[in-house]
Amino acid sequence: MDSSDDENNDVTKELYHNSTLNGTKFVEEVLTGQNEYCRENFRMDKQVFYKLCDLFQAKGLLRHTSRIKIEEQLAIFLFIIGHNQRTRAVQERFRYSGETISRHFNNVLNAIMAIAIDFFQPPVSDIPPEILGDARFYPYFKDCVGAVDGIHIPVMVGVDEQGPFRNKNGFLSQNVLAACSFDLKFHYVLAGWEGSATDSRVLNSALTRRNNLKVPEGKYYLVDSKYPNMPGFIAPYNGVRYPTNEIPGIYAQDARELFNQRHSILRNVTDRIFAVLKERFPILMSVPPYPLQTQVKLVVAACAIHNFIRNEKRDDWLFKMYEQDIEPPVEESMPQVEVEPVAMIPFETQSSEFVFAEGQLEAASQLRDAIATEMWSDHVRSLSIM
After folding, report:
1. pLDDT by residue (tens digit) across 348-369?
2. Which residues pair with 147 in a beta bridge?
3. In sequence order, what are the residues at sequence separation of 6 or more whose Cβ sits closer than 8 angstroms to the Cβ of residue 363?
4. First and final C-alpha spacing in the chain
5. How many CB atoms are closer than 10 A to CB 244?
6. CA–CA separation, 222 vs 234, rounded Å?
7. Among 10, 122, 183, 346, which residue's CB has the most CB atoms within a 10 Å radius?
8. CB atoms inside a 10 Å sphere around CB 383
9. Which pTM was predicted?
């Protein structure tokens, strides 16, 4: 499918629903109109839309046809995933046959997948500014590069395949794992695992597959209690309750509570990045009527576009909405999302077990204790000075 989305993300409801323009004129009107129109219709600013079109053309992944330019091809794709539109509604909007809509949708999706790896950059060794500039986190989490969590994305599969995809809540889903930075970029995404797969199993797959999640030497990601505390991944203390935020008069009572509290505040970046992703591309929270392989690709493609937008326009309106910390939920039960941009092997359920020696696990436990102890000592000292 070729992708030709208009680049005005905020088309008014009247234009969106009632315009009598054909697809070519509709896209032209959006892209020559106010930037808000592009945001509403194509879920990104105009300059970002055009840059994405130019990239596809330069890479030879999409080309103009006699009837549909690249811009309109991308517009069709973004309109579908940005508004969760079914083919019939898109046919009416763009005035093309269902076959034409479907072909361009798939062409654009495949074009994104062809270069998705370029949009996912591994973490660097520098201390993240979000940690360096905050006394709550520095120097304690100076070696932390981001957070890992998952989300369950609704999935449609045949009756005979539904068993493994039914998650613990009884819904059909794919379990997607994502590693992200504190500036709301995805480092790594693995999509396609069945909803019944445990979080630790999905993480194990991410660590052991050919195109694996890599953690820089001496660095680590934050994870929640669904995952084990192990080298490269620091989890909160199990069974330790803590104030959900730093409200005056409500304080952590010991080192473990304080560690869990600040660990949670940092880790809520996963809540925010998933919120941006779902807000921009609501198709991810529905059950798209596509083959399973396409449903898996859509997750990866959405995360890739998310990163592209973040790189090209850091002050994108959705990022601005979620850049600041949001209060973490009392019960953190974020569903899981699995996306792997490097290689689409969503049904590879056979993977070796990632095994750590007892000494390595002990070292990971000691690292967490050392962080908690230092943090608590400094906290007590600061209270005595006040």
Report:
1. 344 455 566 667 889 999 999 9
2. 180, 222
3. 231
4. 63
5. 17
6. 5
7. 346
8. 9
9. 0.86
